[in-house]
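Hi F.,

I've been meaning to write this up properly since the lab meeting, where we talked about keeping a consistent format for the predictions we share between groups. The idea is simple: the sequence comes first, exactly as it goes in, then the structure tokens exactly as they come out, then a line or two of notes. No screenshots and no reformatting. I'm using this chain as the first example so we have something concrete to point to.
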Amino acid sequence: MNHDFFKGIKQWDIDMLEMKFKMPIFYYDTTTITAIYTASTAKVKELLPLPQMNPIELSPGKCLVAFVAFEYRQTDIDAYNEFAISFLITFDKPQIPFLTSALQMYRRRMTAYIWHLPVTTEIARVGGVEFYGYPKFIADIEFEKEADKITCHLAEDGNNILSLRGKVLPVARGKNSKIINHEL
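Output, unedited:
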């Protein structure tokens, strides 16, 4: 596999909690499913840890919640899956319903608070918690593929939490986007 994309980026060896890996971690082969829904702004605001975090509203009283499933088939820490549940926010700035989300999408720069971030391997959990402070925990995350559809199932202790299903879309290299994550 050609990894020219990472050419010139220095990695260093890490030995932490009896686990050895390289930083930064390179991700070579990935599938992602993303779904963004609306939720009650008042209820989401109760889940945010800081008063400076303002949920971005699509319309008054309805903010945006992102569900993103990741299937990391080849990485420097082996294959694992991850599922992010996050709230799109502004930090220490007011937001204007619809306009703030439209502006962030136009600028390709979004800010999110990661509420839950389950993963399927211990090395992914430890690295995310210890290095980045992510709210990672171990859960069951499985991908199911059909010819033109893909489904991700999220479960914990055998109890189904949710499933995301979407159409497989053709991919082409597009413009870069920047996502700023806040976690506590």
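Notes:
The chain has three helices and 13 strands.
The chain has a mean pLDDT of 90.

If this format works for you, I'll send the rest the same way.

G.
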